[in-house]
Structure formats: structure tokens, C-alpha cells
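hi! just following up on the protien thing from before. the input was this:
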Amino acid sequence: MQWLKGHKKEILKSLLLILIVGAMAGCGYGILRLCGFSSQEDFIRLRDDLGDSIWFWLVIAAIQIFQVIFIPVSNQLVTVPCALCFQDELWKVFLTSWLSIWSATMILWAIGKFGGKKVLAWVLGDKEQVERCSKWLSRGWIFYPLGMLLPLPDDIVTVLAGTADFKFWIVGICSLCTRAIDITCSVWGWGYLTKFWWGWIVLFGGTALLCVVTYFFYKIEKNREKDAVAKTESKN
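and the predicted 3d structure came back as:
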């Protein structure tokens, strides 16, 4: 209780920030529904209007970028209905979704990098706390791929990665690979992996393997930190 009283302002600001993000997501989803881009029937209608043309895929790419930035939920909101409409050309759904979602991910990283610390400064109100929080977040680069694949709001994870000053190439390569896996499961998984019992084993086995690899990278990083501390102490 004492801790809550001592951090009352920070907690209230954090709750306000959560409400703002929630409201933004709700408004974003409302805009998609209002424009007719929220169900399989809507995408079928769009396909009938534009056909299998470059304009159709540009519209899909724009919708994907919009939903990634303004609606921090799974890409399945757009990818799955689109895949159900184009079951004979799923590679186009995959390629369009992959490139557009990855582009939006990098935009989120840039938002976090150039605006994340300002938001942290507003919430925490103390430069030392901001630097301490940023330093703590920066240690999470090892877990970034895991955070992008687990059922988490990965768009928010990417903003935090930008706030923690994760390097561009780390976020770029990791998100390019993890988005490919995620979108592959969304495009083909509904028809194959989740239809058979062995498909679930593949999904859970892959997640478990990623957790094991992440753990080994974590141990390697901890050993590097210990070696760095030991070298610093020996010099002193």
C-alpha cells in the first residue's frame, strides 16, 4: 500500500495511457468496420469490385499497415479473412501481408525510438527513472523474437523495443523472420496445421524450441555481463 501511495501519479498516468491505447484500438477497429474491411464478406466484396489487380493488393497492404499501427492486436484480423477469399493464391496474401506488416513494424519501432522516452518521461516524471527503465528494457533484446511470436500484443512490444533503443538491424531482421512465421501460420495454418493433431504439435514444439534457444542466448548474455564486470573490477 505504501508503494502504491508513493507512485500514485505514475500509476494514474499509466492507466490513462492504457485507456488512450485502448480507445485508439477501438476507434481503429470502428473505422475498419465503417469502411467495410472487417469480415470475410467485406473482402469478397472488395475482390469482386477490384478483381485480382494491383489495386486490390495495394488496398490490402494499406489496411494491414493501418491495423498494425492503430490496432495492437493479431494480424489475423485482416490476414485470415483475406486468405479465405484467395485460397487459390495464398502466396499473394502471404507476400502482401508480410511486407506491409513488416513495414508497419519498423514504423512502430521508429515511433518508440523517437517518442517512447518522451512518454516515459511524462509517466515517470524523473530523468533518472527514465534512464533506469530504458536500461532495464534494453536487456530484453534477447526476448524480442519470443515476444513477437507468442500471443502477446507484439505491436506494443515493438514500440518498447524502440524505446529501449534496440538496434535497427536487430529489430529489422528479427521482425522480418518472426512476421514470416506468424503470417505463414495465419495464411496456411487454418487449413493445415490446426486441422490435424500433428499440426498442433508442430506449433507448440516450435514455440518450445524458441523458448529453449532464447534461454541459451540469455545465459550467454549473462555470462558476457559477468565477464565485463570482472574485467572492470580487475582494472580497478
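The chain has a mean pLDDT of 75.
The CA atoms of residues 8 and 95 lie 47 Å apart.
cheers
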